[in-house]
Amino acid sequence: MNGQEEDSRTFSSWKKNNTTDVMTSPDLSDRDPDAFHSVPESVQQFLSYFRQKFREGNVSEVHTLYETTFNRYSERYFKTTSWPSPEIVAKYVDDDEVFLLFYKELYYRHIYSRLVPTLAQRLEAWENYCELFNFILNDGIMDLDLPPSWLWDITDEFIYQFETWCHYRSRLKNKTEEDIAFLKDNEHVWNVNFLLQYLHAMVNKSNICPWLLNGNEPVGSSDPDDEDFDYSTIPVYRFLGYFSIIGLLRVHCLLGDYKLALMVLQPLDFDDNTALFTRVTACYISLYYYMTFAFLMLRRYEDAVRVLGSTLLHIGRIKQHHTRSYQYEQIHKRTDQMLALLAISLVFSTQHVDESVNSMLREKFGDKLTRMRQGEESVFEELFVYACPKFVSPCTPDYDRPMDRHMEASHLQTKIFMREVGQRLAVPEVKSFLSLYTSIELRKLAQFMETSEESFRSFLFCFKHKTFVFRGSSGQAPAEGNFVSCAPVSFYVDNDVVKVTDTKMESKFGEYFLQHIGKLQDFIQMLERK
Amino acid sequence: MEQLSFQVNELLQSRRYDPDILPDLERYVEAQCLEGAYDGDANLACLKLYQFYPEKTNVSIVSKILLKALAALPSSDFVSCLYLLSEKIQREAPISTIISWADALETGKFVEFWNSLHNHEELLKGLPGIEDAFREFMLAVISRTYLRIHLSLLKKLLAISGQDELFSFLSKHGMTDISDDDILRFPSREENQPRPKAILGEQLPLRKVLESLIHS
To answer: Which residues of chain A are within 8 Å of residue B110 when distances are taken between CB atoms?
Structure first.
């Protein structure tokens, strides 16, 4: 409760400062005056109808208008331009300020996805988010009902725009002095601290954590007049709070704080088939992508394989429902990235994955997987860079040294990851070597490897250390687990003699054969028909 | 200490990203070092504030946090810290030295580790008992690698010169099975025992194959 009060105080005081800032900032209006005359009639009607359904709380209709119609109009009329500005739209929607707050969010989101936003637009988009969130946090949408996918997109886009802002402001090479001066004066815009505070405030306001811990039931009353009124009884707040948790996971990953990223997920129930993250596919994918990425960075390769294996299976099943959705491209890209993460993790894990995931993997990264297994470090780096999120540096760049430093955060994470890869490659190497023997003197082994006894011993220690891994299970919260030995070959040294017992894991061919029996049958049938 | 820990965790609940709590977090780091306690999560929160406000970075605190995280191996705390530190800091002394220690420890180069450590003993000031924490990590790795080991080798690996010192360190960890020819036998554990040649293959019964033939 305390935290919540504190948060809202920060916001109101910040908002005051913010308004003065805006008033003193230069005139940022860059709107096309002709736009006034060019709103097609069908778009006018659409906006008016959209607003009407929005106000009626007709969730299923709003869902269609938001997911399908809006995108259809974007495609038809606004492929290379922005939607009509909110000032113009106001007259088609009876100056409905609440609707316009949401419309503005869509308006800027469209600009971000189709055009290159200007500095002014980035600033305005940020200000609109502040207004929108302050409005929501001040009980503004108690009577509204919106489709979960829209609420997810708002949360997700908020973080996406933060991400692009961090990259934008650290590319200083081609910025004008005016731009730089403006950036210097507007430290609060897209500030990481405010971003985190908004997400936390949303989580607190919605009371989502008690709701989750109470077995998906509100702990308080659903009557706003009651003293123990519980915001989680209102779906929009419940969803926004829940999605903000997953937003926090993403932000912490972008900042390189993987431990905190996983800790944020503590209250989530992953075994629940009706969990809120299953309601929006993009949310489901985001959750599992960032979670498994955090596993990878925390060296939890066994967990990464376990979770990626089942996630990719699930996505394979639901993907077909999205072939025409505007999210299809994104789902597709993320799936490939997750496959790449799986390929990397598999090299360092002792597990096998389901045959159908395996065949996806072979098709997409078969060659790369083999090369990684042979210890080719450049392939690890290539896949990592392809599969990692767009890391950001949260602090202000040095505006007095106009350089492009937007890739620094990425380089840092890649470098640390590659350090780990370099160390860990000792594991497959030791394995391939030890598998040849059952009992051999350590001195001799060192000779065969053309190294000193001491450094060969280090090699064995390294193997034992790197195969002693932190592993969780499906019933545990993502941050929890225990240390266990997961070695691809087991050995021990008895005084001076290395004793090896190679535990063979037979590959599973059965499923593969069964699949091909089926394929052959189909083929025969096809031939017979002809 | 307990009170401080409670206080800091309260602060992290309500004001995790507020740079004004840095003095408290830093005081907490110093206290952990002196008293042999460890709170990795609070220390990460401190590094995160340095990440947000690089001008507030206190290199001596960073170095202490890294050493404490290193002593917490095999946990991933050390690498978690590195993800939050800029490349610039990582290149600077003494941070670069500590990172090279981590490399040595994690690749099993224990002798190398001790050599470098003894050349930079000033870094361990204010961290009493940290050397034994490193030894404990090493001993755990060694006992998963070796079933029996000669004491002379163990002394070298753990950088313990005196016999009595070694005995008291080992007995603290329940390792007392030492033969007359100075060979220590570690307590048996899964990793230092011969394992059955378990072959975890799969069974594909004819029935299953027939089923698939009939269905298609």
So the answer is: 458, 461
Closest chain B residue to the Cα of A3, Cα to Cα: B14
pLDDT for res A435? 81
> What's the whole-number mean pLDDT along residues A500-512?
67
Chain A residues 267-326 with a CB less than 8 Å from chain B: 297-300
Spatial distance between the Cα atoms of A324 and A322, rounded to a whole number of angstroms: 5
A378 belongs to a structural domain: no
As a 3-state breakdown, chain B gives helix, strand, coil percent values, each rounded to 5, of 70, 5, 30
Residue-by-residue DSSP string for B99-167: HHHHHHHHTT-HHHHHHHHHHTGGGGTT-TTHHHHHHHHHHHHHHHHEEEEEHHHHHHHHT---HHHHH
Q: What is the DSSP letter of A34?
A: G
The answer to whether the Cβ–Cβ distance between A485 and B145 falls below 8 Å is no
Both tokens of A131, joined, read 């207004």
Provide the domain limits for residue B173: 129-195
Q: Does A443 touch chain B (CB under 8 A)?
A: no
Maximum mean pLDDT: which of A278-292, A426-440, B166-180: A278-292
Is A165 inside a domain boundary?
no
d(CA A361, CA A339) in angstroms, rounded, equals 6
Q: Which two tokens stand for residue A41?
A: 């009639």
The predicted pLDDT at position A188 comes to 83
Residues B103, B124 within the same domain: yes
Both structure tokens of B129: 């008992």
**Facing residue for A499 by CB, picked from B40, B77, B194:** B194
**pLDDT score at A485:** 82
> Per DSSP, what are the bridge partners of residue A492?
A499
Mean per-residue pLDDT of chain A: 81
Domain range for A466 is 426-530
Residues B23 and B104 in one domain: yes
ipTM > 0.95 (yes/no):
no
Q: Does B11 share its domain with B109?
A: yes
What's the CATH number where B102 sits? 1.25.40.250
Does residue B216 fall inside a structural domain?
Answer: no
Q: Is residue A483 included in any domain, yes or no? A: yes
Average pLDDT (A146-173) is: 88
Tell me which of A78 and B193 has the higher pLDDT.
A78
B136 touches chain A (CB under 8 A): no
Instruction: Report helix, strand and coil shares of chain A as percent, to nearest 5.
Output: 65, 5, 30
Q: Which of A226-230, A289-293, A494-498, A505-509 has the highest mean pLDDT?
A: A289-293
